[in-house]
Design brief:
Blueprint (H helix, E strand, L loop, with lengths): L5 H12 L29 H23 L9 H10 L1 H16 L3 H21 L3 H14 L6 H16 L6 H31 L1 E4 L10 H14 L8 E4 L4 H8 L3 H11 L7
Antiparallel strand pairs: 1-2
Helix pairs in contact: 1-4, 2-3, 2-4, 2-5, 2-6, 4-5, 5-8, 9-10
Length: 279
């Protein structure tokens, strides 16, 4: 299921980033992480709301899955089987996309704790959906029946991808192997969360300092001013030349774009390759 919705999630993230450009809607009482109104009210997205909102999204997804699983063969259509499956985790995708964007931009200990709690549960939940035998039985029956109908190319492709995703995620495995695969999915999610936290720490601590002004020839004044202010902030009391670049500003990108000296661009590029390596 996660594989099926990768493209949708990527497009969704793109939409989240540019939501501020859309008209402001009326006030809403929807849970903040599940609120689909635009522009997004980022100030409402606090770590204490994340867990209950995602829990509610999983409950709604489970309800939608159970409705599909109860269908009798004669009731099955594309809309109430594969169409319903595609929409079943929309709110869960909404909430988790917001959470990941928020973490990438406003990382904090409290938010990390909430994400470390939520992400493995979501992974386990989605893993269980693709291994749900009642749902799988309905989808296999629906596929056989729908092959005899006139579906659009997009519907046929989605149905094909859905069936493959379920098989790839262990729907046809025996119970003991399905359980083992769910355990592996949880372990991978925890490892991914740990890696993400370590990477973000490394990114925050990464700096590149230049003390020779000649090396920075060609870089615009605003970028140099920003780097100079960063240097003075990190080296209080020093009045000598120095410019410090971080990955939280656009100044380091300006070096690669504008610096005329090759040794300057090379040194920055090589230093950036040390990110998250312990070097």
């Amino acid at each position: 299921m996660a594989a099926m919705s990768l493209l949708r999630q990527s497009l969704h993230l793109f939409f989240l980033f540019f939501s501020v450009a859309l008209p402001s809607p009326a006030a809403t009482s929807a849970p903040p992480f599940l609120d689909r109104e635009r522009p997004i009210r980022w100030s409402r997205l606090t770590q204490d709301k994340l867990e209950p909102d995602i829990q509610e999204a999983m409950r709604l997804t489970r309800t939608a899955i159970e409705e599909i699983s109860r269908l009798r063969p004669e009731e099955m259509t594309y809309e109430n089987t594969f169409g319903a499956l595609e929409k079943s985790n929309d709110l869960l995708t909404e909430g988790m996309c917001k959470a990941y964007v928020l973490k990438s931009l406003c990382d904090s200990g409290e938010l990390r704790k909430a994400m470390d709690s939520v992400a493995p549960r979501v992974s386990a939940f989605l893993s269980s959906v693709t291994k749900d035998q009642a749902l799988w039985k309905v989808l296999k029956t629906a596929e056989e029946r729908l092959r005899q109908t006139h579906l659009s190319p997009e519907q046929e492709r989605y149905m094909e991808l859905s069936m493959q995703s379920f098989r790839d995620n262990g729907a046809d495995l025996p119970p003991d192997k399905r359980a083992r695969l769910e355990s592996i999915d949880r372990e991978l999610t925890l490892a991914s969360q740990r890696f993400n936290n370590l990477y973000m720490d490394a990114r925050k601590s990464w700096t590149w300092t230049v003390r020779n002004a000649a090396l920075l020839e060609g870089i615009d004044g605003s970028a140099l001013q920003q780097a100079r202010e960063e240097f003075l902030k990190r080296h209080p009391g020093q009045s000598g030349p120095g410019w410090t670049f971080t990955l939280d500003s656009a100044a380091s990108a300006r070096v690669m774009e504008k610096a005329r000296r090759e040794e300057c661009r090379k040194d920055l590029w090589e230093h950036r390759q040390s990110l998250a390596t312990g070097a």
